[in-house]
Amino acid sequence: MNNFPLVDLASLEEGSSAEVVKILGGWRIHSRLEGLGIYEGVKIRKISKSLLRGPVIIEVKNCKVAIGYGMAKKILVKKSSD
Amino acid sequence: MIKKILLFGNPNVGKSVIFTRLTGTTVIVSNYPGTTVEYHQGDTRLNNEKVKVIDVPGIYSLTEPTNPAEEVAKEMLEKAKEEGSFIVINVIDATNLERNLNLTLQLIKEKVPMIIALNLCDEARHLGIEIDYKKLSQILDLLIFPTCAITGEGIKNLKEKLDKAKISDFQFKEEERWQEIGRIIKEVQRISHRHHTFLERIEDFTIKPFTGLISAVIILFLTFLLVRLIGENLTNYLFDPLFNNLYLPNMIKLIEKIKSPLIFDILIGKEIEPLKSFGILNTGLYIPFVIVLPYLFAFYLILSILEDVGYLARLAIVFDGLGHRLGIHGYSLIPIILGFGCKVPAVMATRILERKKERILTTLLILLSSPCLPQTIMVIALLAPYGIKYLFLIFSLLIFLSLIATFILNRIFKGEVQEIFIEIPPYRLPYFSMVFRKLYFRTKLFIKEAVPLIIGGIFFFGILDILKIIEFLKYFSEPIFQRFLSLPKEVAAVMITGFLRKDVGIALLAPFNLAPKQLVIASIFLIIYLPCLSTTLILIREFKIKDALKIIIFQLLLGFLVSFILNILLS
Questions:
Q1: How many CA atoms lie within 13 A of B34 on its CB side?
Q2: What is the rounded distance in angstroms from the CA atom of residue B514 to the CA atom of residue B520?
Q3: d(C-alpha B343, C-alpha B337), whole Å
Q4: Are B209 and A51 inside 8 Å of each other by CB?
């Protein structure tokens, strides 16, 4: 167990790995994210932060995905200790 | 008996290429997620029977549709299930097995007869990904064929075994779909460690915020230079000489035989030189084929390469942040860039946007943010002798205006902007046969959809001209130009020609010996006041008359207002 607090994906540090803990919002956002393999419990790595509220880029399951800023704000993650 | 084949798969897995290989029909193949929202259909022969093949839009998920492509895909599957006698070919990207299996498992839950094409196998091998497809086949209880769609490897095997498609007996808990996939991946996939490739380094550079922005500006600038170089040379050394030396003299000889001045006026025009009057076989063909087509061809060539390399998706990502403030989507950038070339295909390209608000705002940005390429070149030619500051004034004013206009309209129009959420495809070397196929399709679309409109529009103007209605309009608008914009009254005539071809309108300003300030005002007015005739017709077709009129009236008011204010400020 680690003691890192929950942060949203937009605020997560660039380059760090994390686990998705909670996705805020209704079935639509859950369903959209799930299609590309982002669901509660999945491990991700943040590749690049957003510029001017542009999209956040993460790597999930060996694949790079761009997520709009507003959507990234709704994804709560816990930083992994490694 | 198989009567129908549905091709299912994620976007960007080479599904369209497999479709083309199966049917032999040419389709647009692209590296840009989402291009296949318009689906393609073709025929193939199986045991001497004709079988329908449907290229279902690329989707990530089937269970709860969240976008039009998924809705379409789900409907197609439901319809096939009702009709029966169908199979599904699930195309899987071997370089991305884990994510692709999500859709596969969802299809298995649908209990449909299917077969799997494991595509991009050679690329996976290059990346150090090894897949034990025989084991995967055992687990999923389905036949799997490794394919390389581009070279055609494996497709013949697949086609011969299509009747072996079956309903899988593979069982799993729906709530644990991703966990199940994780277990399968552990069993069938080995990834050997490797170093970052050169392409991956470029990938990082072009996607990170600051370097991404810099590379975008450089790439767009190079695109512009290249398009101008290719387009200008094609026009000057190939299309124009062909038209003026070969086509036109012979056509005139032919039409003179009819010995009817009226028919001659309609077909060739009151003057023989192209663009000076409204002949449908003269100006009507000169505009689309000699002026627009060469630039469009050059532009589409570069665009198709950028698209297939995988750069356009990145460009959309880099500009998404800025776009959201204006009420548009990152994808909107692609039609806007198309608009640097010609507004007609650009407005047509806004179809990729899902929401009406995004489409209308993007269209406004297309129309206001930049003149089309032939216009830009005319403006540069006309104003360059007076120094760079006037050019700078015009182009920055246009960008400023379009941003302000969209920003304000974004506040007025209701509706939220769709968040961008896309997979970033890896950079790939483009396959030139695919690039040319796409180039062919886009050019064909322009010729089929836009050329008749241009010719029809010129015919309409020719009639107006013969009926002296144009003269009346000129007479009526002369005082407006004189009083409010401080332009000579003859400019009114130019503005009316400008509706036909704006670049020509700008070129026609040259003989008036206008002062640079007047040139700036006249150019700005010409660029903004109306979309050109062809664009107007396309707007009406794409948006229905009501919304098209709104856009056009907005432009007209803005054009007068800005030129009027500019006239006061500059004097």
A1: 20
A2: 9
A3: 10
A4: yes
Is the Cβ pair A51, B321 closer than 8 Å?
Answer: yes
Distance from CA of B447 to the nearest CA of A (A): 36
Question: CA B19 to CA B149: how far, in whole Å?
Answer: 9
* Residue contact A55–B66, C-beta within 8 A: no
Using CB atoms, which residue from A31, A37, A69 is nearest to B321?
A69
Give the pairing type, strands B421-423 and B86-93.
Answer: unpaired
Chain B residue with Cα closest to A52 = B321
How far is CA B237 from each of CA B227, B233, B242, B251, B276, rounded to the nearest angstrom? 15, 6, 9, 21, 21
| Residue B57 · residue B9 · CB < 8 Å | no
Antiparallel, parallel or unpaired: β B49-55 and B4-9:
parallel
Contact B317 A33 (CB under 8 A): no
Q: Which two tokens stand for residue B382?
A: 């006309």
Strand order in the sheet with A17-23: A6-8, A75-79, A17-23, A43-48, A56-60, A63-67, B421-423
pLDDT in tens, B197-214: 777 777 778 877 788 888
pLDDT tens, chain B, 571 aa long: 889 999 999 988 888 788 888 887 555 444 333 333 567 788 888 888 889 898 888 899 988 888 778 888 888 899 899 998 999 999 999 988 999 999 999 999 999 999 999 998 888 888 888 999 999 999 999 999 999 877 788 888 999 999 899 999 999 998 889 999 999 999 999 988 666 677 777 777 887 778 888 888 899 889 878 887 898 899 899 999 999 999 999 999 999 998 888 888 888 888 888 777 778 888 888 877 887 788 888 888 988 898 888 888 888 888 888 888 888 888 888 888 888 877 887 888 787 787 788 888 999 999 998 888 778 877 887 888 888 888 999 999 999 999 998 888 888 877 777 788 888 888 877 877 778 877 887 788 778 777 787 787 778 777 887 888 878 877 888 888 888 888 887 778 777 777 766 777 777 777 777 888 888 988 898 888 888 887 888 888 788 888 899 999 999 999 999 999 988 888 7
Q: Distance (Å, rounded) from C-alpha B446 to C-alpha B363?
A: 18
**Phi, psi torsion values for A17, nearest 5 degrees:** -95, 150
Strand partners, B148: B153
E-assigned strands of B375-452? 421-423
User: Which of A37, A57, A64 is closest, CB to CB, to B178?
Assistant: A37
Matching residue, tokens 């548009």: B328
Q: Which residues does chain A have within 8 Å of residue B64's beta carbon, measured at their own beta carbons?
A: 27-28, 31
CA-based nearest residue to B229, from B307, B294, B176, B309: B294
Task: Label residue B187 exposed, middle or buried (CB < 10 Å: 0-12, 13-18, 19+).
Answer: exposed
Q: Say yes or no for a CB contact (<8 Å) between B213 and A55.
A: no
List of residues 6+ apart from B219 with CB closer than 8 A? B306, B311, B315
Helix (H, G, I), strand (E, B) or coil at B139: helix
Min Cα–Cα distance to chain A from B338, Å = 22
- Are B421 and A49 inside 8 Å of each other by CB? no
Q: What tens digit of pLDDT does each residue of B232-259 get?
A: 899 899 999 999 999 999 999 999 998 8
Contact A36 B320 (CB under 8 A): no
A19 touches chain B (CB under 8 A): no
